[in-house]
Structure formats: structure tokens, C-alpha cells
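User: C-alpha cells in, sequence out, please.
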């Protein structure tokens, strides 16, 4: 342990002496957290809307004002024909077209029901679905305030079609009230930020750690082990422990930043997060050690670490719901340690889960870490011998 202590002191001095690496380890992850948390979202804060008002009545103008006044829709333009609206969709000047038919106000007064047509730019299906849900909610609320009913017809392609007519279906006998559990405000940051924290810790523990070990191979340090009293185990410990500690510091700073900037809830115990992070870092550092045994240069280490991280992220359910993947993809995704740590972070921070709630993913990480780290050490010993 005395030898390891001196080696650790040397490693920390080397890290803090290198200003570029220090910024990559501490400053860059926090900046990435601020940028990615705001960019990686499927929320649509404001959609550009083109209005084709064929009625020109006070009722049609009131409907448009209700939509623009909600803050969700911005009026990109208006016309009395469909051709300018189709051109606006094609040139991406608008995300949707609201077409109000003739006799709109007359139908509201005489039948208490009137149809409207909505053309959505469905190139991005996720964004189109969000816009449709916003529009439906606002139209229903506007109809209730008038004591009438609106019949929106959504079309996910550019083109005009016949507007629906006829009386609306009778009002349902049951009244549905909904409430978002764990995230009542439906704040997307609460879902995304815990996952992005896992990504930042992974980059520090896997990519940079593997490059640091390979650098010793490039300058010939590994070849000198045979003539020094430093054992392979002491060398591995001195190389991995600093990045283990720095990754935990990054996670702590990220949690503080997420709480102060994005108001991320911390409903569960931070002790559960810390223990889970320790187990997860065993996996990440084990993979970093394995990468260092199969490459010869830092560029190769960076490329392989990037490839492994990309596969893990895509299969982790960070950006897309894990349950929506095909069965074979879900089975393959179980091999991603990122998926299990993201599940733990969201369970503890957002849901307030304890040890019982994270027992399964934490157990997977412990077993995963033991296997990967053991295989990596064995492979490393063979390469250095």
C-alpha cells in the first residue's frame, strides 16, 4: 500500500499539472451537462402555425387568438387559400396548418359543433405527436369555454382533404381526471438530466482512463515494469483509482449543478446513489482497462471507447423508451451497464426509491463489474508479461 500511495501521489500531480486534462475532467463535463440537458429534449416549446381562415368570422379569430395566446403556438402567417400554407410547410416556415372551414361560426351557433382541419409536418414523428397533444388540449379547453364542441381532424402529410361534417359523438358519461405521478409538472429535465449525469461519468471513467493507460504504453513505461519493484496490480491501482475518485467528484458536482440550475428533485438517499456509482465505476474502469490491452495508441483507445459508449447509450433507453424497443434489442440492452445505472439514478432521484427498488440493477452492476474487471486484469497481465 505504501508503494500504491506514492504512485497515486505521482498520478494526481501529473493530472493537476496537465491543465488540458484537468479541464477535460472537471470543467468540460459540467459544461456538457448544461448544454446537453437543454438540447436533448423532445419537448416543443413553441410551434409555428399557419392559419387558413375560410370563415373570417369573430369565432374563427377567437380560436386563433386562443391558440397563439397559449404560448405554445406562434403565428407564422395566414391566407384564404391552401396553396401558401402548403408552401410554408414545404419550406419549413411552419410546423402545422390550421384550416378553418366556411360556416364555422354558423355551425357553432346552430349545431354547437364545428370541424377544423390540422395539417402536421410529420417528418419528425415525435415532435408531431407532441404538437398534436398540445393542440388537442387547447381546442378542447376552448370548446368547453364556449359550451360547444370542436372536431379536429389531424393529417400527417401536406395536402388538403374534405372536412368532416355531421354531429359529434355524444359526450362521455365518465369524467377522466389524470395526474402525473413522480413528475406532476411533466418536466422533461427530471427525466433527462439523471441520465446525462451517467453519460458524463462514463466518459471520464472509460474514455479518458483508457487513454491515460495507453499513454504509458506509448512512452514505454509498461516495458520498464519488469525492472522495477512496482507490480502490475500496483500499477493498475495507481492508474484507475484517480479516475475513480475524479468521476465520483464529477458526479457530486453534477448533482449540485442539476439541483441548482434545473431543480432536479432528490427524493431518495444519496447514499444509494454513491454506492451504485462505486459499483458502476468498477464496470467502466474494467472496460477502460480492457480497451488499453487491445490498442497501441491513444487515438485507437479514443475510437474504441467512443464506439463502445455509443452502443451502450443507444441501448440504454436514455433517449428512447427502453420498453418500446424490439424484444431482441431489449435483451441485448440488458448487457449495457449504462442502462442499469440510468435506471438507478432515475429511481432514486425522481421516484425516491431505496435499496429494495434498486436491488436488481445494482446486483447486475456488481456481478458485471466483478466479471469485467477480472477478465480485464487477466488480459492486461498477459499483454504486459
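Assistant: Sequence out:
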Amino acid at each position: 500500500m505504501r508503494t500504491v500511495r506514492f504512485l497515486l501521489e505521482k498520478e494526481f500531480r501529473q493530472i493537476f499539472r496537465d491543465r488540458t486534462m484537468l479541464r477535460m475532467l472537471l470543467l468540460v463535463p459540467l459544461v456538457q451537462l448544461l448544454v446537453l440537458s437543454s438540447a436533448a429534449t423532445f419537448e416543443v416549446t413553441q410551434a409555428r402555425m399557419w392559419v387558413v381562415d375560410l370563415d373570417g368570422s369573430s369565432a374563427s379569430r377567437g380560436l386563433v387568438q386562443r391558440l397563439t395566446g397559449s404560448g405554445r403556438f406562434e403565428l407564422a402567417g395566414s391566407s384564404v387559400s391552401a396553396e401558401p400554407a402548403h408552401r410554408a410547410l414545404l419550406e419549413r416556415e411552419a410546423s402545422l396548418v390550421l384550416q378553418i372551414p366556411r360556416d364555422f361560426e354558423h355551425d357553432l351557433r346552430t349545431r354547437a359543433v364545428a370541424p377544423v382541419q390540422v395539417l402536421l409536418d410529420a417528418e419528425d414523428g415525435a415532435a408531431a405527436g407532441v404538437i398534436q397533444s398540445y393542440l388537442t388540449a387547447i381546442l378542447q379547453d376552448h370548446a368547453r369555454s364556449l359550451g360547444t364542441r370542436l372536431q379536429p381532424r389531424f393529417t400527417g402529410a401536406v395536402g388538403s382533404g374534405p372536412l368532416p361534417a355531421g354531429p359529434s359523438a355524444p359526450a362521455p358519461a365518465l369524467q377522466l381526471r389524470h395526474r402525473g405521478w413522480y413528475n406532476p409538472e411533466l418536466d422533461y429535465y427530471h427525466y433527462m438530466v439523471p441520465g446525462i449525469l451517467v453519460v458524463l461519468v462514463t466518459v471520464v471513467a472509460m474514455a479518458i482512463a483508457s487513454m491515460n493507460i495507453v499513454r504509458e504504453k506509448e512512452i514505454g513505461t509498461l516495458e520498464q515494469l519488469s525492472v522495477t519493484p512496482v507490480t502490475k496490480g500496483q500499477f493498475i491501482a495507481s492508474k484507475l483509482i484517480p479516475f475513480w475518485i475524479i468521476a465520483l467528484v464529477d458526479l457530486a458536482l453534477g448533482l449540485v449543478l442539476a439541483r441548482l440550475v434545473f431543480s432536479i428533485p432528490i427524493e431518495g438517499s444519496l447514499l444509494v446513489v454513491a454506492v451504485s456509482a462505486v459499483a458502476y465505476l468498477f464496470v467502466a474502469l474494467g472496460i477502460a482497462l480492457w480497451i488499453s490491452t487491445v490498442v497501441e495508441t491513444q487515438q485507437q483507445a479514443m475510437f474504441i471507447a467512443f464506439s463502445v459508449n455509443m452502443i451502450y447509450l443507444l441501448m440504454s433507453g436514455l433517449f428512447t423508451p427502453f420498453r418500446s424497443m424490439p424484444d431482441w434489442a431489449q435483451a441485448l440492452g440488458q448487457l449495457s451497464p449504462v442502462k442499469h445505472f440510468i435506471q438507478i439514478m432515475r429511481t432514486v432521484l425522481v421516484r425516491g426509491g431505496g435499496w429494495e427498488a434498486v436491488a436488481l440493477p445494482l446486483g447486475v452492476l456488481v456481478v458485471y463489474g466483478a466479471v469485467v474487471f477480472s477478465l480485464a486484469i487477466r488480459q492486461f497481465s498477459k499483454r504486459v508479461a
